[in-house]
Structures are given as C-alpha cells and as structure tokens.
Design a protein that fits this description.
single chain; 7 strands; 6-stranded mixed β-barrel; alpha+beta; 3 helices; Barwin-like endoglucanases; globular
C-alpha cells in the first residue's frame, strides 16, 4: 500500500491534503524540497523544484481562490499551500530566465506541477511554446498566513 493512501488525505481540506502529499513525496513526479526542512520559513530558505505550467484565457476575468479577479496579464500564480500575497521568484531551469510572481490562487491540480503561472509570468520565463518548464521556486517575501 502506498503512503498516500495511508495518510487518509480524503478527510483533509484540499489545501492541507495537497501540502501533505507534496511533503510526503506522493504522486508520480513529486516536487523535491531543497531546504533543510519542508516547512515554509521566511528569509528565502524555502526552495522547491518541479514543473511549472500556466493558465490564461479560459480563466481570465474569473475569481481566484483569494477572491481577486484573475488577470492573465499580471504577474501572479497559483500554489497549493503558500500564503496569498507571497512573492515567489521562479527560475526556468532550461533557459535561466526568472520572474517574481505573487500568489493569489490555489493549484496546480496536476500531481507533477508545483506552480501555475499567469500568462504574463509564463511569457517572461519563455515557456509559452512548450506550456511547461522545469523550475525552481524561492520565496522573496512571505505573505500573511492568516487571511
């Protein structure tokens, strides 16, 4: 039996379950934590490596999980567990391009993804033609965990 089933994530809220799955290393291509511990410390010590994707027209103008209206032309992103308004540096490991984005939504909802970027963020990383890219995330400024 795989450890994901033993954790009983179905009883947890989606955000907590997603964070627990990521921390436990469940899924097909789980993200790899590079920090000493898997918590979310301030000061840029949190680093996560995995696959980024982006979302655009289909969600443009719709509310995000934070209540903000999604604008595909702003530098925003969705992350499973980081507090809203956290600023994250996203580095494209294929081409060395980076961008700072603000977390204002929840996701991504595919096991192998660590962040969903807005169209503007994806453009700055040069990932539009492919749709995904291997990235490294680092916290620039931690948002308020109490919303």
């Amino acid at each position: 039996m795989n450890s994901c089933r033993r954790m009983g994530t179905a009883r947890w809220t989606p955000v907590i379950a997603a964070a627990a799955i990521a921390l436990a290393g469940c899924g097909t291509a789980s993200p790899r934590f590079l920090s000493r511990d898997a918590s979310v410390p301030a000061g840029g010590k949190y680093q996560l490596q995995g696959i980024a994707s982006y979302y655009a027209e289909e969600f443009n103008g719709r509310p995000t999980a934070s209540g903000e209206i999604y604008d595909m032309n702003k530098l925003t992103a969705a992350h499973r567990s980081l507090p809203f308004n956290t600023i994250v540096k996203v580095l494209n490991l294929q081409n060395g391009l980076s961008v700072n984005v603000r977390i204002n939504d929840r996701g991504p909802f595919k096991d192998d993804r660590v962040i969903d970027l807005s169209l503007a963020g994806a453009r700055q990383l040069g990932m539009i033609p492919l749709g995904t890219a291997p990235v490294k995330l680092q916290i620039v400024q931690l948002g308020d965990p109490v919303q």
